[in-house]
Request: fold
Amino acid sequence: MAAYLMNRVFVSSLMLSVMIGSLNAQVADIKAICGKAKNQSFCSSYMKSNPKTSGADLPTLANITFGSAQTSASEGFNRIQSLVKAATNPTLKKAYTSCVQHYKSAISSLNDAKQSLASGDGPGLNIKVSAAMEGPTTCEEDMANFKVDTSTMYNSGDFQNICGIVLVISNMM
Ligand SMILES: *[C@@H]1O[C@H](CO)[C@@H](O)[C@H](O)[C@H]1NC(C)=O
Ligand SMILES: *[C@@H]1O[C@H](CO)[C@@H](O)[C@H](O)[C@H]1NC(C)=O
Reply:
């Protein structure tokens, strides 16, 4: 009888710790996240094209999407730098050169955001990623001011859309 009871206690405490364990690693609701994203169809296809997002908890998802934002910012930076080199039109060169600075500051804001991400500080992450998004936006405004048509050469849409997902996640942290 005593052994039976002990067994019962053991089994229920085992079940309890399994339940607590699964609470700690709760699978993030990707549908809910993408439902709040600025570009919902971008968000859904992004999640589908990244198998690691499936079954991930919120901190993992924050890490994955933040990593994509960093990659996208460096790609944008490299792209703009090669456009500066290739530009022969002085106005165009000037516009792209100012963009290089805006991308540098975006990358630096993302580097600051890493600390907030690591400590699970959602509001801090939100502020710093929002700041990072201003770089490419300012770049595009500059180019519009210089009246250069860059629609076929340059687009920061993916970067903005990925950052948009990070912002949604940061609001859930
Ligand atoms: C939203 O995402 C879709 C699919 O990735 C893309 O085709 C479209 O251009 C995006 N819209 C904006 C405003 O970024
Ligand atoms: C994010 O993932 C990378 C590896 O993919 C890892 O080195 C890093 O510690 C992770 N950061 C957080 C905050 O989980």
Notes: The two ends are 47 Å apart (CA to CA). The first helix runs from residue 2 to 24. The chain has one domain: 27-170.
